[in-house]
Structures are given as structure tokens and as C-alpha cells.
């Protein structure tokens, strides 16, 4: 794992999440738009935070550092998907 791969992963996974949120808003413009917008803002904050962490100067084993960041990214993106899923489920009732 290196910085370039990590940045590509952040771009892809967070970008796909935002795309999924935008798709929900597009298909359901009257349902839970404010909640999904707040989740998108969390995703953007996560994106910026991960990019900042990726750009920090790393001493020692860089591969281990980026692997840890990648794990953190997956955990946080999963948490965002859980939030989105709960909003979608609540909007169907």
C-alpha cells in the first residue's frame, strides 16, 4: 500500500458513496433530502480528513501507515452507508 493507491481508494469509495446519496435524492426529491444532505457533508468531511492524513509526513513503515488509514476509511464509509440505509428505510414507511 502506498500513498497513490490510498488516494485512489479514497476518491473511489467516498465518491461512490456520494453518488449513491445523490441518486437517492434524485429518485426521491421529497423524502429525507435534508438528512441525506447532512450525510453527504459527513462524507465530504471524511474525504478531506483522509486526504489530509494521507498527505502527512510519515516516518518509518509507510505501507503499514497507509494500510491503517485504508482500514479506517472502510470502517467510516461503512458507518456512513449504515446511516444512509437507515434514512432510506425510514423514508419508505
SSE arrangement, N to C: HHH
Q: Overall 3D geometry? A: elongated
Alpha carbon gyration radius = 15 Å
Number of helical elements? 3
Strand composition percent: under 5%
Spans where pLDDT lies below 50 across 5 or more residues:
none
Q: Which structural category do the helix and sheet elements fall into? A: mainly alpha
Concise description?
The chain is mostly helical. It has helices at residues 3-27, 33-55, 62-91. It has one domain (3-91).
Overview of this protein structure:
With 93 residues, the protein is mainly α. The protein has one domain (3-91). It has three helices and no strands. Helix 1 packs antiparallel against helix 2 (33-55), helix 1 (3-27) packs parallel to helix 3 and helix 2 runs antiparallel to helix 3 (62-91). The longest helix is centred in the C-terminal third of the chain and has 30 residues, at 62-91. The radius of gyration is 15 Å and the shape is elongated. The model has no long low-confidence stretch (mean pLDDT 94).
Amino acid at each position: 500500500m502506498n500513498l497513490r493507491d490510498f488516494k485512489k481508494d479514497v476518491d473511489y469509495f467516498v465518491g461512490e458513496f456520494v453518488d449513491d446519496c445523490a441518486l437517492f435524492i434524485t429518485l426521491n426529491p421529497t423524502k429525507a433530502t435534508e438528512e441525506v444532505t447532512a450525510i453527504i457533508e459527513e462524507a465530504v468531511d471524511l474525504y478531506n480528513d483522509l486526504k489530509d492524513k494521507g498527505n502527512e509526513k510519515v516516518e518509518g513503515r509507510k505501507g503499514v501507515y497507509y494500510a491503517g488509514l485504508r482500514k479506517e476509511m472502510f470502517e467510516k464509509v461503512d458507518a456512513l452507508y449504515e446511516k444512509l440505509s437507515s434514512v432510506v428505510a425510514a423514508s419508505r414507511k
